[in-house]
Specification:
Distance between the termini: 30 Å
InterPro entries: AAA+_ATPase, ABC_SmlMolc_Importer, ABC_transporter-like_ATP-bd, ABC_transporter-like_CS, ABC_transpr_FbpC, Mo/tungstate-bd_C_term_dom, Mop_domain, P-loop_NTPase
Organism: Actinomycetospora corticicola
GO molecular function: ABC-type ferric iron transporter activity; ATP binding; ATP hydrolysis activity
Number of domains: 2
Strand order of the largest sheet: 6-7-8-3-9-10
Order of helices and strands: EEEHEEEHHHEHEHEEHHEEEEEEEEHEE
Keywords: ATP-binding, Cell membrane, Ion transport, Iron, Iron transport, Membrane, Molybdenum, Nucleotide-binding, Transport
Helix content: 25-40%
Structural class: alpha+beta
CATH class of the largest domain: Alpha Beta
CATH superfamily of the largest domain: P-loop containing nucleotide triphosphate hydrolases
Radius of gyration: 24 Å
Protein name: Molybdate transport system ATP-binding protein
Length: 358
């Protein structure tokens, strides 16, 4: 098992990536972020596809900055299996060991062992054209691990698979990666991938790390807008105040402080969309935060309907993207359509305020 220490800056056109990250030996870290956040650029730098403008990549004590791609001991599993079409499944898996100096017989024995690990022994003599998408990805997993990489890079490994195949391949990858104990970085848009596979989440935004922590902690108490969205929570940025949180526009969001947050400290207010009530007119009563919104979209969400907020004319910008989960009956009572102006309301007892991430 190998420890990875990264501190790199990469410029591609007008985009600048500047990331510092440590991944412990055998740890699995998921890298998340919206499109354009820098995930692919970061993975490309680790794989040797992009040369950093400054910084270094250290894997198991080896500085990889000037090490050719084929000598980095880095395995890559991407969206597409990218198997050699003229080789059988066994020979595709054996290619890695052969390229690192193993003899033909030893490489084939290694290939057979990994084919068995991914439950694909019966596919050994088939060519890629004879494999389904899920079968091809099993072979690709075996090939990526057969050369015993010190670092495994997973680039959206399930994105091209059918939805009925993905759960089995996800479980398989978890099993073999854990068994191999290989240090792993995974880029994904799917929170389920992170929950099933990752020990830790790292969130990128505009080429910078904005959040990092154990998977369960980040999803339970996200500190960035992207992490809140994938965790299914509403997030409002601002600064802590005795009542809860004060936004940049001066709106006070009533809330509780589960952990100490100094007054004036950068903070985020978190609450579930199921805690949000929706009205045509401002409501009075128990301590609530009431904000005007423009209904941007309505979409099914299990047995509920999710109402997405947009910014009303002259309204606070932070409401954009907030969600409220209400019953179909409540939607019928509102009689609202996208574009209508409504009020979102949440009780202070339902809002938790935490220190913000970097």
């Amino acid at each position: 098992m190998s420890r990875l220490e990264v501190g790199v800056a990469v410029t591609r056109g007008s985009f600048a990536l500047d990331v510092s990250l440590t991944v412990g030996s055998g740890e699995v870290v998921a890298v998340l972020g919206s499109n354009g956040a820098g995930k692919s650029t970061f993975l490309g730098a680790l794989a040797g596809l992009y040369r950093p403008d400054r910084g270094s990549i250290v894997l198991d004590g080896r500085v990889l900055d000037d090490v050719p791609v084929h000598r980095r001991r880095v395995g890559l599993l991407s969206q597409s299996a990218l198997l050699f079409p003229h080789l059988t499944a066994r020979d595709n898996v054996a290619f890695g060991p052969r390229s690192t100096g193993s003899g033909r017989r030893a490489a084939r024995e290694t290939a057979d062992r990994w084919l068995a690990e991914v439950d694909a022994t019966a596919l050994a003599d088939r060519r890629p054209s004879e494999l389904s998408g899920g079968q091809a990805q099993r072979i690709a997993i075996a090939r990526a691990l057969a050369c015993e990489p010190e670092l495994l890079l997973l680039d959206e490994p399930f994105a091209a698979l059918d939805v009925d195949v993905t759960p089995a391949i996800r479980s398989l990858l978890r099993r073999v990666v854990r068994a191999a104990g290989v240090t792993t970085l995974m880029v994904t848009h799917d929170v389920l991938d992170a929950v099933v596979l990752a020990d830790r989440l790292v969130v990128l935004d505009a080429g910078r790390v904005v959040e990092s922590g154990p998977t369960a902690d980040v999803l339970r108490r996200p500190r960035s807008a992207f992490a809140a969205r994938i965790a299914g929570l509403d997030l409002v940025p601002g600064r802590s105040c005795p009542e809860g949180l004060r936004t940049a526009e001066g709106t006070v969001i009533g809330g509780v402080h589960p952990e100490p947050v100094a007054d004036g400290e950068s903070a985020v207010a978190l609450f579930s969309p199921t805690s949000v009530a929706v009205y045509r007119e401002p409501s009075k009563g128990s301590p609530r935060t009431m904000v005007p919104v423009r209904l941007a979209a309505m979409e099914p969400h299990g047995e509920l309907v999710r109402l997405r907020a947009g910014v009303p004319d002259g309204g606070p910008g932070w409401v954009d993207g907030l969600a409220a989960d209400v019953t179909p009956a409540a939607v019928a009572d509102l009689g609202a359509d996208p574009g209508d102006e409504l009020w979102f309301s949440v009780k202070a007892a339902e809002v938790e305020v935490y220190p913000a991430g970097r």
